[in-house]
Write a structure and sequence with these properties.
It is globular and about 45 Å long. The N and C termini lie close together (10 Å). The chain has a four-stranded parallel β-sheet, with helices on both faces. 36% of the residues lie in helices and 9% in strands.
Length: 234
């Protein structure tokens, strides 16, 4: 699940890299890439329910699935994991959140961001996109998607039972100026079972800039099973 202001196209090369044993299912929220014309969800809950409905339509609830989310996508993946349990009484094989602050840090965090053009611009510029990567119209569209996701995050409230009862991994970039090592470690409070924190070389977009180490771990998690030798879903 991609970070705020982005679509799942950035994960397009992951299927080739992971091979035939793993099926990569990208989460594409409305209002970006192939879904520009679709109306945006009004709340986080609405977005989560739409993702769960599509996911369970594509992947049977008993199939080994690893949920992965980067930054805002990590919060979305966390919410999807909880919704899968509430609706289907099933947890994913693992939940992996990358460059993502723990849920308590998201409560009210987007307040003011949606209307702060300078802060939105700083977030976009942090991605290191070159001028040739997008024209002015594309830049404005990306800023609007960031604004939409900031508004969406404002509807997030921690659930009454915030713990996920599946293996939880929190990943961070050693040079990330947005998500600190302490933020990564604080995800431990949301783990009902196994918990693992990992730090990688790079900044906030470490898993996109140098994906190989992350992909090797994800492939191992998706394919490891004591009772099922078939590939998993990411």
């Amino acid at each position: 699940m991609p970070p705020a202001g982005a679509g799942c196209g950035q994960f397009g090369a992951w299927q080739t890299a992971l091979g035939d044993d793993v099926s990569v299912v990208g989460v594409q929220l409305p209002g970006r890439e192939t879904r520009w014309a679709d109306p945006e969800p009004s709340t986080m809950g609405e977005a989560v329910e739409a993702v769960v409905a599509e996911l369970t339509g594509l992947v049977s609830t008993g199939h080994p699935t690893v949920l992965f989310g980067h930054s805002f996508g990590g919060l979305l993946a966390y919410e999807v994991a909880g919704s899968l349990w509430r609706q289907w009484r099933t947890w994913p094989r693992a939940l992996v959140v990358a460059a993502c602050k723990p849920p308590r840090e998201w409560v009210g965090a987007g307040r003011g961001l949606a209307d702060d053009e300078d802060e939105l611009t700083d977030l976009l510029d942090a991605r290191g996109l070159e001028a040739e990567d997008m024209d002015e119209d594309s830049r404005e569209l990306m800023l609007e998607v960031l604004r939409q996701d900031a508004r969406l995050s404002l509807s997030f409230a921690e659930p009454d039972q915030p713990v996920v009862d599946c293996p939880l991994e929190a990943w961070g970039g050693r040079d990330d100026l947005t998500v600190s090592h302490e933020h990564v470690a604080d995800w431990r409070d949301y783990a009902g079972g196994e918990f693992q924190e990992r730090l990688f070389p790079g900044g906030h977009y470490f898993c996109l800039e140098t994906p190989a180490p992350a992909l090797e771990l994800l492939r191992s998690m998706a394919c490891q099973s004591p009772i099922d030798t078939k590939g998993g879903t990411l």
